[in-house]
Amino acid sequence: MAVHAQTVETYKNRVIREDLQEQYSMISPEEVPFQTAIGTATSATQTYHEWPIVELAAPDAANRVIEGDDTPAVDAGNMANRVGNYTQISDKRIKTSHTSEAVDAAAENIQKITKQMALKLRELKRDIEMMLLANVPAIPGASGTARQTAGLPAWIKTNTIAGAGGANPTLSGVTNGYPNAGATAGTAVPLTEVMFNNAISAAWLAGGNPTIALVNSLNKRKISNSFTGSSTRYKDAIDKKLVAAIDVYDSDFGQLSIVPTRFMGTIAANNYIVPIIDPDLWGVSYLETVKQKPLAETGHAKDRLAWCEYALQCDNEAGNALIRDTNGA
């Protein structure tokens, strides 16, 4: 076989238009299961957002009085504890040149400031999810120092299962105040079904109704591969396809959704956590919801800022549980 010397071929053509798809593809995950589950709490009105927690006295198994008692005992009042969290500011800023705004490009003109800001808002949502699940205490901040809102692991101190040597988080006023220290790492151990059930039981006994267990990829696989008790495995409509994963765990105290998240916090490197939560006891309190505004243009560029200010609110940490120091094995 041969090609005639004068045959016009693409190899000699210097003006073939590029083949560039108009739509762009993105694989970056955007699911934020913790924020989705807990929703928004009451709005904050100060940088230190507080809320009261009231608990009933323990049941009195000796509450029997005589008929006609003229001087019944006076019971202690149910006084509220006062806990809080500091708000923190998160932002995204984008700047594009006037030329970038003027040119026509593929990928849906992704270089333009409106497209860039839309992507930055999606990044902001992911940033918030990661920080809400981080083992960090609240920090009041100061001039030149950013405020910090305490993350989920810094709240749960009543119902915890941790490795040897670990320590629970603390409140600034013992029973009142804000989380001023996160949890301390202990010896990492494998997650077990006994640990899982003990945590659910502890949260339920304290008055919570946990319905979600948040897990990273390693602990999700551990639950799917090793838990054999009251688990539900969902099968696809086509019988030949079996989904080898536990999506719902039917415990003695109700069903829990096993929700994987890519943004799970840790107590320390390779000390993974499994929060078991009652989502009704959590919320994000916004001092400022997500806003954006154009900034003053300087030179040959456009400038835009997006921001929000928020705190993680935990109405009662005792209604939740936290398994700490799992090693993913």
Structural commentary:
The chain is 18% helix and 31% strand. By secondary structure, it is of the alpha+beta class. The strands form 4 sheets. Strands 4, 7, 8, 9, 10, 11, 12 and 15 form an 8-stranded mixed sheet that branches. It has a 3-stranded antiparallel sheet with strand order 3-14-13. Strands 1-2 form a two-stranded antiparallel ribbon. Strand 8 and strand 9 form a beta hairpin.
Structural class: alpha+beta
Helix coverage percent of residues?
10-25%
Give the averaged pLDDT, no decimals. 89
Secondary-structure element pattern, one letter each: HEEEHHHEEEHEHEEEEEEEE
What distance separates the N and C termini?
Answer: 60 Å
Q: Rg, please?
A: 27 Å
CA-based shape? elongated
Residue runs with pLDDT of under 50 for 5 or more positions? none
Treating each run of at least 4 consecutive H or I residues as one helix, how many helices?
A: 6
Number of domains in the coordinates?
A: 1
Beta fraction = 25-35%
**Main sheet?**
8 strands, mixed
> Strand tally, please?
15
Question: Which tags fit this structure?
Answer:
329 residues, alpha+beta, eight-stranded mixed β-sheet, three-stranded antiparallel β-sheet, 6 helices
